[in-house]
Design goal:
single chain, 555 residues, Dipeptide-binding Protein, domain 3, eleven-stranded mixed beta sheet, 14 helices, 23% strand
Length: 555
């Protein structure tokens, strides 16, 4: 974590796979050198045919038991179309996607794509991808998964007015059924995200947008499908007690086999509990009544590291981004560039990261750009901390006695302390931010009503800078503070449409300069994502920054 170079995964693997998915070749490390010079124009070899179980000595694997997962807040829906408030629907092995994004090295974030419900794929040209689907896959209701289902799910996600995944599918023109086990994606334009966006590792609640749901179950339950989810994964829902717990049991007809030749999962059942208090959650982990969570705050990480009964898995290459956004639509910042620049210079990013990160966090200047992303360049202009310059700019902006404005932030960890630190920085230079904490739903509504001057907002770990469309594009599903610059949107689309790393880098440098010149959004801090689990829980893996419990087992 302490070396800057490993802050985030260099997910140019997206481009590596686009150029060559030959199963005989070893997976390339995510580095610039491994990126192709041009987009593919001919048929490409298929990806590895299966997401094979991790080689674990047979004698060590144990079957049985109930795995207990915990979150501090329940999900708002178990329908991939509707989920907004929580990400654990993405992490639990209920639904599956066409492609997996398996992390091979948790220290560096080196990763590769593997087939999940797609056995293989072929990139025929820059705007056509053909998937060979796995034969014999059943949904929990006994119906078959096939190309017709894949097309139906895509159409639902693209066209349903309630869909939260539309932004992720914007580059897809349509899907075609070639035959029962062959599914073709036709793209509106070349996209470096074509494989990344078919995995659950893309970040945020919409990361499961192309999770395969049973059309039969959706039609049967209608609006109530959210409480009766039916996927193809190794667990199936038994009971949902809202805000308490959700119970699952092993799906006996799951297609994938473990090391012992029997169907996964190795455990008999899984319970996802809601434990609202982080301290109580930590206590349950120590007591063994909870086996795994991703919501232990940084203040407890040192304690976890020294506890032999627990395992701390940090992903410094996939950090949560803490960003400050100013309201560009209303005073005092909308028409006052000097005041906006004052806010940018006022933030002591290193001081905040050092004080709150306990050695784990890093300062962030570049608004979601991180080392090894195309376009990362520390020589680009940025607003480094300068309180004296900030004070002078406040006065030059016409506020000799300072200026007051509402500042909203989510009350729960990990948002409270960073927001308080930013408020303190602002106060020193005459920016009188009236900080108000509230639950995330209320914050979102206040922001939607444009009733704010500034807000502290987070971004989930991205696989690629093009994923910023969610949080910073004008119509982005996660653009909570309604930053909008059409030139920036066009820049993001241009960068996504290229396959060459160097050409993408030049485009994204231009994108960054647009953000810099607007002075409306800035990075504050990067915090590594975390998984904490019992030492008795074995073989916990990652898909991107998310926990992967497909092959886990209890000792």
């Amino acid at each position: 974590m302490r070396e800057r170079f490993c802050v985030v995964i260099a997910v140019v693997v997206v481009l590596v796979i686009l150029a060559s998915c030959a199963p005989s070749a070893p997976p390339a490390a995510p580095t610039k050198a491994s990126v192709p010079a041009a987009p593919p124009t001919a048929a490409v070899a298929a990806a590895p045919t299966a997401a094979a179980a991790t080689p674990t000595p047979m004698a060590q694997i144990k079957r049985g038991g109930t795995l207990v997962h915990a979150r501090t807040k329940d999900t708002d829906s178990w329908d991939t179309l509707l989920v907004r408030s929580s990400e654990h629907i993405v992490q639990l092995p209920l639904y599956e996607t066409l492609v997996r994004y398996d992390v091979l090295d948790n220290k560096t974030g080196k990763a590769e794509y593997k087939g999940e419900l797609a056995e293989s794929w072929e990139i025929v040209n820059p705007t056509t991808v053909v998937f060979k689907l796995r034969k014999g896959v059943k949904f929990h209701d006994g119906t078959e998964f096939n190309a017709e289902v894949a097309k139906w799910v895509l159409d639902r996600e693209k066209n349903d007015p309630k869909s939260g995944g539309k932004a992720r599918a914007a580059f897809i023109k349509n899907g075609e059924v070639v035959d029962p086990l062959t599914f073709k994606l036709n793209l509106e334009r070349p996209s470096a995200l074509v494989l990344a966006n078919l995995t659950r590792a893309t970040g945020g609640p919409q990361g499961v947008w192309f999770g395969m749901v049973s059309p039969t179950a959706v039609k049967k339950y209608g609006d109530d499908y959210a409480t009766h989810p039916v996927g193809t994964g190794p667990i199936m829902m038994v009971e949902w007690k809202r805000d308490q717990e959700t119970k699952f049991k092993a799906f006996p007809d799951y297609w994938r086999k473990g090391e012992d030749g029997k169907s996964l999962p190795y455990y008999d059942a899984l319970t996802s509990k809601v434990v609202p208090d982080a301290a109580a959650l930590h206590a349950e982990l120590r007591a063994g009544t909870v086996h795994i969570t991703d919501l232990i705050p940084p203040s407890s990480w040192k304690q976890v590291e020294t506890d032999p009964s627990l395992v701390l898995k940090l992903a410094p290459w996939a950090p949560i981004r803490f960003n400050l956004v100013l309201n560009q639509h209303k005073p005092p910042f909308d028409k006052n560039m000097k005041l906006r620049q004052a806010a940018m210079y006022a933030i002591d990013r290193k001081g905040i990261a050092d004080a709150l990160g306990l050695g784990y966090n890093l300062p962030s200047n570049y608004v979601n750009w991180v080392p090894n992303f195309p376009g990362w360049d520390e020589s680009l202009p940025r607003y480094d901390y300068d309180s004296e310059k900030a004070k002078a700019l406040v006065k030059e902006a016409g506020f000799a006695d300072g200026v007051q404005f509402p500042f909203y932030a989510i009350a729960q960890d990990p948002w409270r302390k960073p927001a308080e630190a930013v408020q303190s920085n602002f106060d020193r230079v005459g920016l009188k931010a009236v900080l108000d904490f509230m639950d995330d739903t209320t914050v979102i509504q206040r922001l939607k009503n444009l009733e704010f001057g500034a807000t502290l907002w987070g971004s989930s770990p991205y696989l690629d800078p093009a994923h910023m469309e969610s949080s910073l594009a004008c119509q982005g599903a996660g653009n909570r503070a309604f930053y909008c610059n059409e030139a920036f949107d066009k820049c993001l689309v241009e960068g996504e449409s290229l396959y060459d790393f160097d050409k993408r880098a030049e485009v994204y440098k231009r994108c960054w300069k647009i953000l810099y010149e607007d002075a409306l959004v800035t990075g504050v801090m990067l915090q590594p994502t975390v998984i904490v689990h019992s030492a008795k829980l074995k073989n916990v893996r990652n898909q991107g920054y998310l926990m992967d419990l497909w092959e886990a087992w209890l000792n």
